[in-house]
Design goal:
Residues 786-806, 879-888 have a biased composition (Polar residues). Residues 7-152 form the Toprim domain. By secondary structure, this protein is α+β, with helices and mostly antiparallel strands. Helix content is 27%, strand content 18%. It is flat. It starts with 5 loop residues before the first strand and ends in a 37-residue tail after the last strand.
Amino acid sequence: MSVRPIRVLNVAEKPSVAKAVAGILSRNQGLRVREGRSRYNKIFEFSYVINGQPCEMMMTSVIGHLMELEFGDRYRKWNSCDPADLYHAPVSKHVPEDKKDIKRTLEEEARKCQWLVLWLDCDREGENIAFEVVEVCTGVNNRLDIWRARFSALIDREIHYAAQNLARPNQLFSDAVDVRQEIDLRIGASFTRFQTMLLRDAFVLEYYAEDRNLVLSYGPCQFPTLGFIVERYWEIQAHEPEEFWTINCSHNSDEGTAAFSWMRGHLFDYTCAVIIYEMCVEEPTATVTEVKKQEKLKYPPYPLSTIELEKRASRYFRMSSEQTMKVAEELYQAGFISYPRTETDSFSPQTDLHAVVHDQQGHPVWGAYAQRLLDHNAGLWRNPGSGGHDDKAHPPIHPTKFSAGESNWSQDHHKVYELVVRHFLACVSQPAVGAETTVEIDIAGEGFSASGRVILSKNYLDVYRFESWGGSLLPRYDVGQQFIPTALTLDSGVTRPPALLSEADLLSCMDKAGIGTDATMHDHIKKLLDRFYATKDANTRFSPTHLGEALVLGYDDMGYELWKPYLRAAMESDMKAVSVGTKRKNEALTACLEQMKACFLDARLNKVKLLQAMEAFFERNNRAGGGEQNQIGHVVRRCNLCQESDMALKRKPDGNFMVGCLGYPQCRNVIWLPGSIAEANVSTDVCNSCNPGPVYKIRFKFRRLEIPPSYSIDHLGCIGGCDDILRELTEICGTGSRILPTVSAGAQGQGQGPGRGRGPSSNNASRTTNQQGTCIHCGQTAHYSNSCPSQGPRSRAPTSSNSRTDSNADEASIPCETCGSPCPVRTANTENNRGRKFYSCRDCNFFVWEDNVNSNGGRGGRGSNINSAASNPRGRSGRGSNTNNPASNPIRRGGGRGRSRSCGRGRDRGETHQTNGHTFIPASTFVSATGEPTAARRCFSCGDPSHFANVCPNRGL
C-alpha cells in the first residue's frame, strides 16, 4: 500500500535562495514554477522524500523580515507625544503594505499544507524571521507541523543533509532579536526626536542636507561607533609634539651591515642624552655581549569569521565593510562560499576539510598548492587552529564550490572569493619557519641590539600572498668580539600622534567592545557616513564631521557616557543571555529600558550642554520658529480637546510660557500662562482634583515686581482648572509681554507691542528687562522721552486742511503724532463699533477715531475725548480717553489672546495719563484697537485701569 504524500510549504529568506534550494532538492527534474501573489516571490513545486515520507514540496520565499515593529498610531508622529513616553508606549509587529502580497501567498499555500519547513538563515535574525512566517501561516492553519532546516551553504550535500535532518525552530534566538528590536526602536526614536527637534532648526545645518528633512539620528550602536572615531580624533588634536633624542649605531663588514638600536629607546632630556653620547664617543669600542639564535614560527590565521573578512578586505583591498558584505552575500547565494555572517572561527571535527581543498585542485593559480596540501608526503597539512568563538549556528566562512572566475563577476567578486579560498588553504597549512638571530653589544656601558631573520620554510605564506615575513640577515658575530662602529650618531626625533582609525581599526574596536553583531557592524558604520556624522578618506580612515563631534561633545559635557561602548556592550551581553536561556526576555527589556530612560531624562534636563556644543561649530539660526524654544517640552497632560495627543509645556521665542497640544496644527488647543513667569518646569506631582488625569503640576517662579506683593514668587500650580492662584495671576498679569523696550533718541515712540495670533509676541526683538526706560531729556524714569513734560505740549489739532494726505491718494491717512509716519484709515468690525473709521500707527501707540478728527477740527490723538454714551450704547468707553479718575473710566483689560499689531486683530494702544506730574504713555491699554472693552482689571499698584503693574510708572518712583 502506497504512502499518501504530504504537502509541505517551504519558505526561504530570499527568492534566490528559494530557487537554489528547490533546484538542489529536485535535481532540476520535474521542477514546476508558478506565480505567487508577489511577482518577485515565485512558487517552485517538486516531489521529494524526507526520511522515507513522500512529500509534495512547495518552495517560496520572503524578502528579509516579513514584519516591522512600530509604535501605535498615537505615538508614531513626532509631535504626538513626549519622547520620554516612547519608553513605555505600546508597540506591535505588523506586515507593512509593501509585503502584504507575500503574506497573502503564505496564507494561501499554508491552508493547503500539513508541514511548514523554514529555510531561513541560521542565525538569530533568521530565526526571528522564521517565527514571523510561523505567525502568518499558523494564523490560517494552526494544525501545521513546523520544522527548521539548518544549513550553511547552498551546495548539494548541505541542503540534502538539512532536509533529512529537520529540527525545531529556536524560540530563544528569536526572543533575543525581539529584545534588540524593541530596545533599538525605543531608545533610537526617543533620542532621535529629542536631538532633531532641539538642534535641527536652531542652527544653520544646510551644509549637511539640501532640505529641512535632516534627521539627527541616535542609535545605541551607532553612537558608540561614532565615539570611537571622535575619541581618536581628540587624541590627535590633543597631542603636543615633544622632541626626543636617541643614539644609533651601525657596523659595516664584509658580510653586510648591521644596524643596532639603543636599548634605552630614547630620552627627552637633551643634556642627559648628550652626556651619554659623549661617553660612547670617548670609548667607542663595541663588545658583543650576547648572540641568540632560535627558530621562530609565524602561524597562519584562524578560520575566517565575518569580522575578519571585513577587516582583511578593508586592509588588503580597501573595500568598505558594506561592500564586502554585499559581495559575500552574492557569492553565498550563488553557492560559491558558505554563509558569510558568522562569529565562529573554528571548524567542527565533523567538517570534511579535505573535500573543500580537493575542490580547489584545478585552479590555475593556487591549484598546485592545494595538491601539495593533500599530499601526505609533503607534510604541509595541519588541522586549523581555533579562535575560541562559536555561535553554534554556522561554520567559518570557506569556499563551497570551485570557480576560476565567473563571467558576471566584478573585480570585487574576484577579490573576495580569492581571499576566502586563500584564507581557508592557509588555515589548514603549516606555519612559516624562520631562524632569528639577535646580537647585543656594549659601548661604554650602554646596550645596543640588532636582529635579523631568515625564512627557512614559507609554508602557508606560499598561498597567503597578503602577508609577508621579511627580515634582513645579520653578519656573523661571536660573544666577546670587539669592533669599532662605522657610525655612532645622536639623532633627534619628534613624538607623533596616533593615526586616524581605519575601517579595520574601527571594526576591531567594535568587536572588542561588543558593539553590534557580525551581521550589523557594517550597517552602523554606513549609518555614520549617511548621517554626515563622519567621513572616510581614500585610505579608509575616519574623521568626525563638525556635527558628529558636536553631538559627542555635548553628551560628554553632560557627564554621560552615552557615546561610550559600555551601555551597548551590556545590552549585547543581555541579548546573548536571552539567546541561551539564562535571562528572560522581559527581564532584559525592563532593566535596559529603565536605565536608558533615566539617561534620556537627565540628558533632556541638561540639553543646554548640547546647545553649547553645537554653538562651538555652527551659527545660530535666526529663522522665526527655529531653535530649541519651540521644541517639545515636558508633557503636562493628555489633550482634553483632541483626546489623541499630549499637551506639553513650551517656551516661546519671546520668553513667555504656554501649554500646547503636540498634535498641532491638527489640534490647536492651548493654555496661556501668566506673562510674569520667569521659570517653569513640569514636576512629577500629579493633581488629585483634575480629570481626566494624570495632570502634572508645574513649578513656577514669577518675577517679583510683576505680581502683587501678596503672592509668592514660587508656586506649584495646576493648569487643569483647579488652581485659583494661577487663574488670578493670569487675570492680573495677562498672558504676554507688556514691557516697553528702552527707547533711544532715534526711535522715540517705537514701543514693542504685543505679538500676533493667539499668544504672546512672536516678533524677533529680544525680551526686555523689568527696568523702566529713562527719559533722554530730563533723566527721569517715570516716563519716556516721547511724553516728557519738559519738552512742552505737543501739537494737538492741526488744521483740517492738513489732517489728511493728498485727496487724490488711494487711501486716506493722517501723519502719526509721535513718529510722523502716515496712518491709513481703517474700519472697525467689532459688535459695538462695526463700520466706524479710525487711524492708527503701525510703529507706535497712536490711535484716533475718524469722527473725533472731524468733529474736533483735528486729531483726537491719545488725549482725545472719551466716546459719549450715545455713540457707545453699551456704556463702554472707547479709545483715546483722557481722565485722571480711574473710576470714571471703566476700561476693561483683555484676556491676552488675539491681540495683534494689526488693527483688525485687537491691537492695544496707549493713552495719556497724568501721574505724579508727568505724562506717561503706557505700553498698552486693555481695550481692542476698535474700542471693544474686554474685562474690568486695574493696576494693583496705582489702581489705573489703563495698564498692568509690570509697566506701572509709579513702580520705579
